[in-house]
Design goal:
The chain has 128 residues and is mainly alpha-helical. 66% of the residues lie in helices and 5% in strands.
């Protein structure tokens, strides 16, 4: 997959997730505690009306399959690193920090992993 395609997919996914979260937050604000109690609805249920996590997760899994991302780095980037904004979380390889703060960083990391796997698989037959 081309880098530009990958970045655009994640950009649109983030936009959609942010929009769904925004609608859910506004719905929560529109219903005061009494209104939610009367309808027997909790805030997380209001948000889930607009945030279909299974759809988003499916897109992430498709990308993870495309990149043979066994470590689920794409999901990690989205959910744990909060699209790269959580700079407190670091990734290391052989004591060197691997940057994962942008979708570009993520793409480069995934492509490098694919290259390493291909090289490893190329020589694996000699060790089995």
């Amino acid at each position: 997959m081309k880098k530009e395609t990958f970045i655009n997919i994640l950009k649109e996914l983030k936009k959609s997730m942010d929009h769904a979260e925004s609608i859910g937050n506004r719905m929560e604000q529109a219903f005061d505690d009494n209104g939610r109690d009367m309808l027997d609805i909790r805030p997380y249920q209001l948000s889930s009306l607009f945030y279909d996590g299974t759809c988003y997760d499916s897109i992430l899994h498709i990308l993870e399959n495309e990149f043979d991302d066994e470590g689920c780095w794409i999901s990690y980037f989205v959910y744990e690193k909060d699209w790269g904004k959580n700079t407190d979380l670091k990734v290391y390889d052989d004591c060197s920090e691997i940057p994962l703060n942008t979708t570009e960083d993520l793409y480069d990391f995934l492509v490098l992993n694919q290259i390493h796997k291909k090289e490893h698989n190329k020589y694996e037959k000699y060790f089995n």
